[in-house]
Amino acid sequence: MPKTDKLSISDGPSSRTEPAPPLSRKQREIREREARILDVARDLMAAEGYGGLSMDRIADAIGYSKGTVYQHFASKEDVMLQLSLRAIAEWNRHYDLALEFRGSSRERLLAIHLGHDLAAHLYPIEYECIYAVRTAGIREKVPPERRAVQAAALERLFERSAGVVAEGVRDGDLVLGGGTTPQSLIYGFWSLHYGEITLETYDIQYRRMGVRDQRRTLRRTLQAIMDGLGWRPLSSEHDYAAVEKRILWEVFRAEQARLRRRR
Question: Could you tell me if 160 and 190 are in contact, meaning their C-beta atoms sit under 8 angstroms apart?
Fold first, then answer.
């Protein structure tokens, strides 16, 4: 087992917490070494996929002994779990930014969606690890307490999203019926979004099939669902394309610039 407390690295799901006490020099060195190991692991996965990741390969690439790598991480699956917590931390930071946007509940949910989308595309390997570590063959190699940390962080993100739906109900913009709850609605939205992100990785000529912009297609689908629910203001009454541009400019300008530099 690693000697450092892995559960404390990235398990804080919100940036709005009490400031942590200053780290000692040794603690800073440990964090920096762990961050370097994770960077190398991410790059190996980006180049060669999960099959190209091993503790030996990480040690060779970083110039550490394998024993040093094992001092920090129990296995390559543990490395993937920690990469997933990085993604969740960034996802949560994007939510912090989104929730500062002043607008109707439906506009704020659009900001939440855009923040999620940017996090997934700015940290694609880390984001993929969120779901990869839950799959058969990997899941059982990650200690249950590590998985519990990840699950708790994801649940917190889920509830933050559902809270915006609850705002709409409270403000009278949305009436939910038929057993639909804010949580069940967010479950559906997350499922659609994850499906779209996954389909982006498939080698399919979507433009030839008539899908010119996958991400915008998804947003139009979500808007149509919200129109069907009667979530006001309806898209026939409001220019959500203009709102999207305003959110990206006012809230996520730096993140947009980073994403453009990567392309």
Answer: no
In this structure, the chain runs to a length of 263
Per-residue pLDDT of the chain (263 residues; tens, 9 = 90+): 443 343 333 333 344 556 667 878 777 888 899 999 999 999 999 999 988 899 999 999 999 899 999 999 999 999 999 999 999 999 999 999 999 999 999 999 999 999 999 999 999 999 999 999 999 889 999 988 989 999 999 999 999 999 999 999 999 999 999 999 999 999 999 999 999 999 998 889 998 899 899 999 999 999 999 999 999 999 999 999 999 999 999 999 999 999 999 87
CA neighbours closer than 13 Å in the CB half-sphere of residue 11:
13
Distance, in Å, from the CA atom of 52 to the CA atom of 57, rounded to the nearest integer, reads 8
Q: Packing angle between helix 182-200 and helix 144-171, nearest 10 degrees? A: 120
DSSP 138: T
What the block records as the tokens of 163 is 């809270």
Q: Are 233 and 171 in contact (CB under 8 A)?
A: no
Residue 71 to residue 84: CA distance in whole angstroms: 19
Q: What are 4's two structure tokens? A: 């450092």
Residue type, position 171, single letter: D
Distance of CA 220 to the CA centre of its chain: 21
From 137, 150, 140, 139, select the one nearest 51 (Cα to Cα).
137
Yes or no: say if 62 and 40 are a contact pair by the CB < 8 Å rule: yes
Q: How far is CA 196 from the centre of its chain?
A: 14
Q: State how far the alpha carbon of 97 is from the alpha carbons of 37, 54, 238, in Å.
A: 28, 36, 23
The helix/strand/coil state of 68 is helix
Nearest to 247 by CA among 71, 95, 133: 95
